[in-house]
Amino acid sequence: MTIPDLDWNNLGFEYRDLPFRYISKWKDGKWDAGTLTEDSTLHVSEASAALHYGQQGFEGLKAYRTKDGSVQLFRPDKNAERLQKTADRLIMPHVETEQFVEACRQVVAANIDWVPPYGSGATLYLRPLLIGVGSVIGVRPAPEYIFTIFAMPVGPYYKGGLKPNNYITAEFDRAAPHGTGANKVGGNYAASILPGQLAHDAGFADCVYLDPATHTKIEEIGGANFFGITADNQFITPLSPSILPSITKYSLLHIAGERFGMETIEGDVPLDGLDKFVEAGACGTAAVISPIGGIQIGDNFHKFYSTEEVGPVTTKLYNELVGIQFGDIEAPEGWIVKV
Ligand SMILES: *Cc1c(COP(=O)(O)O)cnc(C)c1O
């Protein structure tokens, strides 16, 4: 394979049709052996449940090139487990953790020249997808499923380094109190396209989703989780059944507590209690950590640390997490899987 002619330092977040992807099909109660393929088009029935009723789930994770040139995944077993929970909620078959992680490794290995060089800040993003297919038009679990993983090199979220973004609270909800907010499903994203667009049109990076029942507490920041830092060294993040459990967030909770001796709290984050936060951020695989400058709440703009500069605790957490992911800092047991 030839080394691709890409400007590694200026990649965005764009789809790219790489040479190989993994595909496995479920039929008559079992998965086939699964294989790498060069075909980037899915061939599915027009009556597929994924297309009509949103019976699908997805994941997102990255492969990182380390200083010694090797390539590694960050906690892929956690993505596998989360996809299994999504599958349970939508009555889809499990992809077992071993098959999931092995498929990730195969896709990265097959496209190894597309894993960006160490030091560029860029990574190879993996998109696992589980969809209900087969010809049934009634609303019930699909008779067949496809599990696929494709990949693309993506740039760091912040090309010139970390910088704060501003957000605005949404009038709409991405999920219902007992709906699918805790599952990584396309339906939640379908509900988020309009509020996201409205936030962008108003000049904000994205919208802040509030708890769907009362609209008084912060739940999510666009497609990322929220965290706040208090003056007395607490790391606080919302706890709610309609929040997507971010692997980045749980990793930061661990790092904050175990490595930086912070008090970590999962609990309510009421809009009328934001004054206690000296710093705040949004976190997820794509954004890593996105410092929050401020949030527009009605007529009031609530500023956290600064809209220009990044706070010291956010910076410290970011450096530790990224250092672990790129292999520069020792990872907690079991967090790194070599390709
Ligand atoms: C994927 C996702 C996140 C981030 O989860 P990570 O595991 O950290 O990538 C946060 N919120 C929503 C709604 C998501 O879909």
Task: Characterize the structure shown.
The protein is an alpha+beta fold. It folds into 2 domains: 8-155, Aminotransferase class 4, branched-chain amino acid transferase, N-terminal domain (D-amino Acid Aminotransferase, Chain A, domain 1, 2-Layer Sandwich), CATH 3.30.470.10; 165-325, D-amino Acid Aminotransferase, Chain A, domain 2, CATH 3.20.10.10. It has helices spanning 49-52, 76-89, 97-110, 186-201, 247-259, 312-325; strands spanning 21-27, 30-31, 35-37, 56-58, 61-65, 71-74, 123-133, 144-154, 165-169, 206-210, 218-221, 224-230, 234-238, 263-267, 277-284, 288-297, 300-303, 336-338. Strands 1, 2, 3, 4, 5, 6, 7, 8 and 18 form a 9-stranded antiparallel sheet that branches. α2 (76-89) crosses α3 (97-110). The protein is globular and about 55 Å long. The model has no long low-confidence stretch (mean pLDDT 96). Bound molecules: pyridoxal-5'-phosphate. Pyridoxal-5'-phosphate is lined by residues 60, 184, 220, 223-225, 244, 246-249, 284-285.
Count of DSSP E strands? 18
At the first level of CATH, the class of the largest domain is Alpha Beta
Bound molecules: pyridoxal-5'-phosphate
Shape by Cα distribution? globular
Number of helical segments with 4 or more residues = 6
What's the number of domains? 2
Largest sheet: 9 strands, antiparallel
Order of helices and strands: EEEHEEEHHEEEHEEEEHEEEEHE
Task: Write the CATH homologous superfamily of the largest domain.
Answer: D-amino Acid Aminotransferase, subunit A, domain 2
As an assembly, this protein is single chain
Low-confidence stretches: none
Average pLDDT rating: 96
